[in-house]
Design goal:
alpha+beta, SPOR-like_dom, 1 helix
Length: about 60
């Protein structure tokens, strides 16, 4: 990582009720990403939100 570059290895993913997946945002820490996912999930919509590290799929395997 060079000076002035920020690493954002954590992403929040949203899956809608049709099974479509979208990246919501990228974050520096897992805690920050989880806070966003939790706040979106608390809205009560049918969408599913989860946190992944870039290079890792939902079941934890490396891409």
């Amino acid at each position: 990582m060079s000076e002035g570059t920020v690493s954002l290895p954590w992403i929040v993913i949203r899956q809608d009720d049709n099974g479509n997946r979208y990246r919501v945002g990228r974050y520096a820490t897992r805690a920050e990403a989880q806070k966003i996912a939790d706040s979106l999930d608390d809205r009560g919509h049918k969408q599913l939100y989860w946190v992944e590290r870039i290079g890792q799929n939902r079941d934890g395997a490396q891409n």
